[in-house]
Amino acid sequence: MIQTEIGTDLKKAKLLLDATEIISIPTETVYGLAANGKNPQAIAKIYTAKKRPISNPLILHYKDASSAFQDVTTIPKNAEVLAGKFWPGPLTMLLPKKNNIPDAVTSGKSHVAIRVPKHELCLSLLNTLDYPLAAPSANLYGRISPTSPIHVHEQLNSRIQYILDGGICEKGIESTIIGFENDNVIIYRLGSISIEAIETCIQKKVHVKNKIEDKQAPRASGMVKHHYAPNTAMFSIAKKHEEENLSNCGFIGFDTLHPDFPNENQFLLSENGNIDTAAKELYRSFHVMDAKRFKSIYIEFMPENGIGKAINDRIHRAIQKYSS
Ligand code: TXA
Ligand code: MG
């Protein structure tokens, strides 16, 4: 059986990746499960370890914008503008791929997802490699994305050899995924960069095609409706069952304790009402509350400002599994 080690050894990380192995890497959003993005055998190991369907493509992580843009055939003006503003950072762009990108990365699609992560240790690693890293979030398929090395270890222990320890992820919610249709910027997955920040940058309205209820086949095909779910049944506090005995239930709230639950059953995402802190704490709250084995977990939606919409998108997906 593989022993999973947690450490900060960049040489070891590089050795494993060069040998077509997979390791977990830190990013500013969530931990990734990384492999040589130009090597189909290495990429195949990601799908096996995560139990992810091969129809669900991967994001390529680059050390800088120029190496990322080298792997695509078209670079719209706004792609350059957005890269100038947000890279390194939690923005992923879908652009037409060059032939040197293996089909294993894009699941045979014409477009590849590219981003430059904003995490010192991750960038140091990328700078030692002569290939980009293909990396989905380092959770088992459909489960909670990890924001700390311990959370990666809980899910992938004995499936990978090494977790590169870059501390707790600063953002806590995945990157925002965008694409370009004609002259428009489309958001396919809400994420750590808000809609408003993108609109301010390009001086134009963007379209959002990320909604769970969107009947159109979503471009970001991994956006199945019940992603990010804990094992414990999770419900919106707005749908609280009147007769339920709450002494055995948990509550995840924004900044205020709920009078109907015992205090020790509650997790506040940000006691001083900071929406960025709430994003950083969201998946950790799922992990912590799941471990307490409550009968149910109730959660409230966050204010919709800034990254609040992206947090609420993840909450919707987490409760969806238990409401259908
Ligand atoms: O913040 C993040 O983006 C993290 C960190 C590790 O970078 N990564 C991440 O990867 O969230 P993953 O695989 O969990 O989610 C990536 C999403 C999936 O929904 C996938 O379907 C979509 O991006 N995607 C990737 N490549 C695509 C492509 N070529 N076309 C359409 N959708 C794509
Ligand atoms: Mg994921």
Q: CATH homologous superfamily of the largest domain, by name? A: DHBP synthase
Broad shape:
globular
CATH class (first level) name of the largest domain: Alpha Beta
Q: What oligomeric state do these chains adopt?
A: single chain
The CATH architecture assignment of the largest domain turns out to be Alpha-Beta Complex
The helix/strand order is: EHEEHEHHEHEHEHEEEHEEEEHEH
Structural class: alpha/beta
Uncertain regions: pLDDT < 50 for 5+ in a row?
none
| Number of alpha- plus pi-helical segments | 10
**What is the CATH fold-level name of the largest domain?**
DHBP synthase
Notable characteristics:
alpha/beta; DHBP synthase; 2 domains; globular; binds threonylcarbamoyladenylate; binds magnesium ion
Structural notes for this entry:
This protein has helices at residues 10-18, 40-50, 65-69, 77-86, 103-106, 120-128, 149-156, 195-202, 275-291, 308-320; strands spanning 5-7, 23-25, 32-36, 59-61, 91-96, 111-115, 133-134, 162-164, 176-181, 184-189, 207-208, 233-236, 249-253, 266-268, 296-299. By secondary structure, it is of the alpha/beta class. It has two domains: 5-208, DHBP synthase (Alpha-Beta Complex), CATH 3.90.870; 234-323, 3-Layer(aba) Sandwich (Rossmann fold). 29% of the residues lie in helices and 19% in strands. The strands form three sheets. A nine-stranded mixed β-sheet has the order 2-3-7-4-6-5-9-10-11, with helices on both faces. A four-stranded parallel β-sheet has the order 12-15-13-14. The mean pLDDT is 93. Bound molecules: threonylcarbamoyladenylate (TXA) and magnesium ion. Residues 27, 29-30, 32, 56-59, 90, 92, 94, 106, 109, 111-113, 135-137, 174-175, 177, 219-223 line the site of threonylcarbamoyladenylate.
